[in-house]
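QA checklist item 7 of 12: single-chain prediction sanity check.
[x] sequence parsed
[x] length recorded as 126
[x] structure emitted
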Amino acid sequence: MKYFLEPINLSEWFIFNEVCNFHFQESFLATKEMEIGDMLFLYVTNEDKEIPSGIYGNGIIISQPCLIYGERRVDVIINYIRFDNPILNFDVCIKYIKQFRSVHRIDDEIVNELLNTQLKNIMIRE
């Protein structure tokens, strides 16, 4: 399994109104290396100053990347989402992740460190 970070701009897609439950399915931007079964961490960007930036949830990729209207996309089932505050806020994320502007793979070493902290409780939830 590989792990990816998906930045979400709330002015383009207000995830908190759209995702109504776990196992919600949505299409996200993708990279060529994504495969079925990989995990996507949902990172809300700081466009809306009232909502703190951070990782709010995760999902499992359920389709191979494909081009849709010139954008590479994958379908994702949301496994876990927190609506009130981030699982990991920006101050914690910045210690491990240096790029928050586009979807990208997260190094396995970084994921292992994150999983040994606060993220371990969201990995098994079904």
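[x] summary fact logged: The mean pLDDT is 80.
[ ] second reviewer sign-off
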